[in-house]
Amino acid sequence: MRIVLTAESYLPYLSGVTVSIDALARGLGARSHEVLVVAPRPPRGAAVEPIGSPGPAPAHAWLPSYEPAALAPRGYRMPWPTPWPTALREARDFRPDVVHAHSPFVSGVLARRLALSVGAPLVFTHHTRFADYAHYLGPLARPGKHLTEAYLRGFWRGCAAIVAPSADLADAIRARIGADRASTVHVIPTGIDVAGIRVLTAVDPRGPAGWPPDAVVVASLGRLAPEKSPHLLFDAAATAARSVPQVRLLVVGGGSSESLLRRRLTMPDLAGRVHLTGPLPRPEALARVAGADLFLFTSQTETQGLVLAEALSAGLPAIAVDGPGVRDSIRDGVDGVVVESAPAGTLVERLADAVATLARDAARRSAIGERAAADAGRFSVERRVAEVEALYRSLIA
Length: 397
Hints:
Blueprint: E1 2-6, H1 16-30, E2 34-40, E3 59-63, E4 65-66, E5 78-79, H2 86-94, E6 98-101, H3 106-118, E7 122-125, H4 141-157, E8 161-164, H5 167-177, E9 185-187, H6 194-198, H7 206-209, E10 216-221, H8 230-243, E11 247-252, H9 258-264, E12 274-278, H10 282-290, E13 294-297, H11 306-313, E14 318-321, H12 326-329, E15 336-339, H13 347-360, H14 362-374, H15 381-396
Parallel strand pairs: 1-2, 1-6, 2-3, 6-7, 7-8, 8-9, 10-11, 10-13, 11-12, 13-14, 14-15
Antiparallel strand pairs: 4-5
């Protein structure tokens, strides 16, 4: 098949969405399909380098792009809403059998226009819970949320199929799209390179951080921004360390909250206990995480939480706040612990208790980690790409 993927953000900017698009594009290429990615042009001098996804690099058609000054993370580029970009003409000449949008906005509108013009089915993967980002709109948050919801319903109904990365999100979309279109929603999580993660050379974080050999390292990986609730990481680690002094926190990533969090880690309850790496290349970030003892995940605004699958594949027991997509990854009591989000007033203490319990028990950590690694094949990118391929073929048929 010839497949066009359209993206609102793309490499070299790293996020769960851009990693997902790269994994799908290369995975389809590995299955002998021709793939064209239509995405915002990288900044001048920046190249799209491999980030570890298996498979051949796709072809690209670049959209004119810009970097929003205030509303987006550094390095994030968006496409200009140009009516007839050159990339659209290139995509038409490619003659796609399927058009797969990964945003409903500028690139999604282009995808819909392309699909209609070539008579191909339009598939849409819903990567982001947009309502959870409404705070960036300030006083326009409430009307912006309602307008976005109405727009999304219209966009969904124009798609031949909608891919939801988790069962929770699929149920939410089905409830809002209308009973006549509910069958167009399919649950297909984003796959990861499980085999690649298994052969990573883990990097022990104790030496670089100046921690003692008996430190129990709790890792986190992801963007540091308000919607990811990074304050819970720090507060839970500080509380857990009161009962288990060996607890240390490794935070891999950067973002808009980084400067505020760096001030937090100088307070007495965390001084010397936290190592914040800042952004790292993806293979290095995963190697750092693989060298930890536990993984802690506190975001409640995800569609899937890709880093949970990555941590489990590396053999780390995972502790997470219950939220969208979490139970699709963590099997509570089997390969990790899911902590209920309510009541909010005791969440930090309950997270800290889960961390402290596993930090004290090395044998249980090891057993849980072994189960996580042994069953990680359920996250494999090969399996998920095959499911997407089957969906494409059903739509063409």
